[in-house]
Each structure stands twice: as C-alpha cells, then as structure tokens.
Amino acid sequence: MQYRTVAFIDANVALQCLDLKQLPWSEVDRQGPILVLATPTVLKQVEARKTDGRLGDHARRFNNHLRPLLQGQDAVPIRAAAPQVDLALGQPAVIQWPACPDLDPGDSDACIVAEALHTAVPDGARKLFISQDIWPLNLARRKGLDIHHLGESWLRPKELSEAERKAAALARQLEELKSSQPIIGLKFSAKEPVSAVIRIDDLTAPEREALVDRIRLANPITEQRLDGVDRFLAGGYDASLSGRYKKWSDKTLPKHIAEIERRLEAVINQVELRLVITNEGRCQADSLLVEVSAEGGWLNDLPIVAYGVGPAAPQPRPYSPVPSNHFPQASIQVARTHGRHEVVIERPPKRARGFRITCDDFRQGAQHEIRFVACLDPRVEGPLVLRAVATARNLSGETEGTATLTKRIESASLEALVDLSRLHWKWIPLFLRRWIDRCRTKRSGFDFEWFGEDP
Description:
With 455 residues, the protein is an alpha/beta fold. It contains 12 helices and 21 strands.
C-alpha cells in the first residue's frame, strides 16, 4: 500500500495517550493513509512498563495491537478511514553512530530518532516524528524530520497517582469508621516552650549538715507563756508544739535536706501541659479509657509551689476548749457518683509515671481538656516522652497520641539558685512566679501543692 505519511512514535504515545484507535490522526494527515511505526527502542520501553502499577495495563494494551504482526502480518489496521491508519514494526538498518555525532547512543530519545532516520519508507511518503516531549522533537527537527507536537486531545484523562488512590481509599475508610465507631483524638500541648532544664550539683555531707543547722537556727521553736492572758486571749498554749518541733528538727528537716537537690529540681523544672480528648466520629465512645504515661520525667495533677527552701517549722495551733480528737472521724466514706458523660481522672497523679482517664459515654462531637503538670527529670538522659492511649468498648483497636519535650540540661549549684543566708530563691522561675501570683490573687481555679509535701 502506498502511504502518504509514515509516523514514528515514542513510548509516550503508547503509554500516556488514548488508545491508538481513539487518537486524532487527522491532525497528522487529513487524507492518509498513515503508517505508524514502533521502533525497537519504543518496544523495549513499553515492555519494561508491563509490571508498572499505573502504566502496566496500557503497556499490555499496546502490545495486544502488535500481536498479529508476530503471525506474519505486515501491518495491523487501526482505523479504516478518515484517515486510514495502520500499525507496523519499524525495521531500521544498522545505525551508523559516527555519522550522527550529535545523537547519544545512551539516550533513548536519541535512539528513537536515529532508528527513524535509518528506517526505509515507501517512495513519496514523508517521515513524521510524533512526541509530547520537547527534547526528542528538537533532535528530530535538527536531523531533518517533520515533527508533530501532540496536544492535550491525545492524552488520557488524568489518572490518580498511587499516593492519591491510597488517600482516597483512606478517606472512604474514614467515612465508614465515622458512621460505625467513634474517632478519638488525643493531642498534647505545652503552654510555653521548654527552656533549660536545671540539674543541681549534689551537696557534700558537711554542706548538708551545715544547711540543716542554718535552717534550725533561723527557725527556733516559738516561745509560749502559761499565764491566763496567753491561754484565753492570745490563742492559748499548744502542748503539742514541742513534740511536733522535735519531729520536724530531727526527722522532717534532715530527710528534706537529704533530698534537697531533687526536690528543688522538681519545682524549677515543671511545665504546664494540656491533653485535649475529642470524638470526631458519629457515635459515642462507650466505656472510654485513656491511659497517660511519661518517660524521662513524672506527672502531677497540681503545680508544686515554693517561696523558699522550706519546709516551714511548726507553729502553735489555735486554742480550742474541745480537743481536736474529741469527735472520732467517720470510718465510712461515701464514694462520689459520676455522671455517664463526665470525664473522670481515676487517681490524680502525684509525682507519678502515669494516670488513667475514664468516661462511660463520651458523646460524638465532645471535647474535653485535662490540665496537669510534668517535671522534666534532669537526671534522666533523653527527652520527656508523653503517650496517651485510648480504648473503648465500641472502638476497634486503640488510638494513640504522643508528644516529645526535648531537654537542654544545664548544671547549677544550690548557691546559684538559693540565697542560703535568707533561705529564699535568688531568682524565681517563670512557671513558679506565675503560679505564686495566681495563688495570691485567688483568681485561678488551678490549685497547687506546697513545696516539701510528700505525695
């Protein structure tokens, strides 16, 4: 057959464009007939894409067009008319690469152009190179071939990438989950960024003994008088003061100073945290349980506040004509009843590694905030890692939320932080200063614990 146009295609026409039967061949030649040739390099590129997740089906479809050629046919009809289009295999002669110094044998686009140049076509037919890419079209034009830059009408509709398909599948699964079970969100946040974490140098044994003596000297036992004025008008005589002061002097104070570095580190390395629990699903969470844990520090439900080194010496108790132990305390305590929708901390953390939060019926759309305090332990290497794990009776698996607070540990002596002559801070950490102000103004509902109290 006498063809008017012999079109050489690159692999993009086979892999990225519509099926050969659907292409607008009239843009190439309105009259025809047209012979489309697939050269060896194009066949190799298409073959390499047969197992590709996105292009594999298109590579196999193109190869199916070529199958009759393996049975002896010279050409395969693609379109019968308007214009007529046939498909065949290109049979280039041996390429004389020295004669083509501007073509790189290692470049697949250059190989296709070279194969087109070395393929014989019927007399009177024009050679046309078709591609979407600028680089091979420019090579073909420079070698004297006619070119056709295919447009959008040749391309298949945009296909979703593998990542986009996975995202769409996850979105569908999320919608299904929203309608069948709760979607629990757990998010930690710190009110302020963590600055330096202070590690206090350990005192020597003589330094500890001297500090205990200094505190005793600064806090002598309060003198009491036994006359009637002191007993009945000034608050009375406290007979228990001597025993309580001796216990403070002999046990409480030495024990406290033995751990003074760790206790002060607990005060100055605190950070206020929030845990926000949400339910973004379309049904409630039944028997919700959230377990919060910490590594590299500990948790407390309330801030630990201190004005000085402490602990304070005991003072006389106000006089009462009725002894404090006259009425025995009730031994039976009535447990508080919680509502079904109330979020409850089972046991508030007291310098603990974790705590548990429960709610019988955590409704859809609900949001609850838990505020607590964490101490970044300067004697534990590595960051403070917070982890919250939520489970529910109608939730498959578990939901997790995490946060990591890095530590920049700095060493400091006790004297650098505390005025040992006055037993007060030389500087007050921002966290501590803020809570002292709240305590003074009585405007904050976030209570506190006094420094020196044992959990």
